[in-house]
Amino acid sequence: MKLRILFVLVAAVSMWACQPEINEFEPTKGNADFSVYMSAGNSLTAGYAGGALYRSGQENSYTAILAKQFEAVGRQGAFKIPYINSEDGVGTEGASLRTKLVMGYSTDCLGNTSLAPVPANPNATLQELAILLGTSVAADGPFHNIGVPGAKVTHLIVPGYAGLNPFYARFASDASNAVIDEIGLIQPTFFTLWIGNNDVLTYALAGGAADEITAVGTFAASMEAIIGTFKTTATAGAIANIPDITDLPYFTTVPYNPIVLQDQALVDQLNAGYAQYNALMEQFDLPHQISFKLGANPMVIQDPSIPTPPGYEMLRIRQIESDELVLLSIPQDSLKCGYWGSMKPVHGQFIITRDEKSEIDAAIVAYNQIIETAAQSHDLALVDMNELLNQGSTTGIKMDGVLFTTEFVTGNAFSTDGVHLTPQGNALAANTFIDAINKKYNARIPKVNVANYEAVRLP
Questions:
Q1: pLDDT above 70 (res 8)
Q2: Taking the domain 37-245+356-452, which CATH number applies?
């Protein structure tokens, strides 16, 4: 009996000795003061998602997640967000308004029903949505999250911007203010800034057919003014750079060759229809030829840059190249039943051409150099969102058992609008901010488990 008891004791001691040492994570603020945190930016900062601003989207913005995590390292008081009083939300659709987009069932022109983004409330009237967006919440401020959907870096320094953007007007403390004037009302000790995406994104969303890319010098001056305003009270902060926006699902989901032909007679008819075009292209020594075959075909698009002789402007069409992009906004029924891309050239507002993509890429490189230089000169943490999206579009990102990619809907990172983040994507962004802040300021801010947040909800 004694021998048996001794054996059990020895075994127990051996098992205890083999247990891994448990080091408890002790949050520390490092060299930064997080007591008063404030964030500025555009729709990504505001919590806009699914094409709209809505309550739970704001509650799950990366800034709201950061504010919660900063409590462990000394953040005090409420983190005030200019909440909109709706879960269906309100967003812009061209010159009109709509509720957020959710996954639902949609029937196309061929009678096929499938999952697709649909308005959460298709019966919401324009008047109802206008009232919702136009209702001021300024009395509940000042606010710690001053992200403004639609804002460019230049817009944050414009006095009276409330008169130009209803998303700012609804929470502006004074209609004559610039957005950066709200900073003085909070007097933050720490800030985050993610701005500049829209300075090139709005051009891309219009297929290069509207808006302009912000000039590099103007971008630099505006960024310096914003950071300088924050630094009047904040001793530390983090700024994020701009990802390659053409890797977003909005630009990668629709293929360049969606014209699928299964009837040789139709192939012959289309080729006969473009025979004169091909002959004239050859006559004028222009490089483009249009031809169709059985299977998947590149769509025919408008291209005003083709140098045709006077009087032959109708020849400024061609087939899209494989490295050019088709926007998610292209009407699918027009492709399926309206002969877009085959008999009817697709308008440039739905296409990013090779030249337009080069302009976008060059702007992003220049903007990110400005942001990196600003981070260095102001001694701020630099958050590399460009590299994060690059990983998502190539290898994918695995975190807490969740795989993030740039696939539309199924990639977990992006919402139903193909541009803005899901709550799970915001958790990933927040953790990326935390990594950069911890490294820069020798802090130990706890990260969140991204698996605790939702991606796109399916019906």
A1: no
A2: 3.40.50.1110
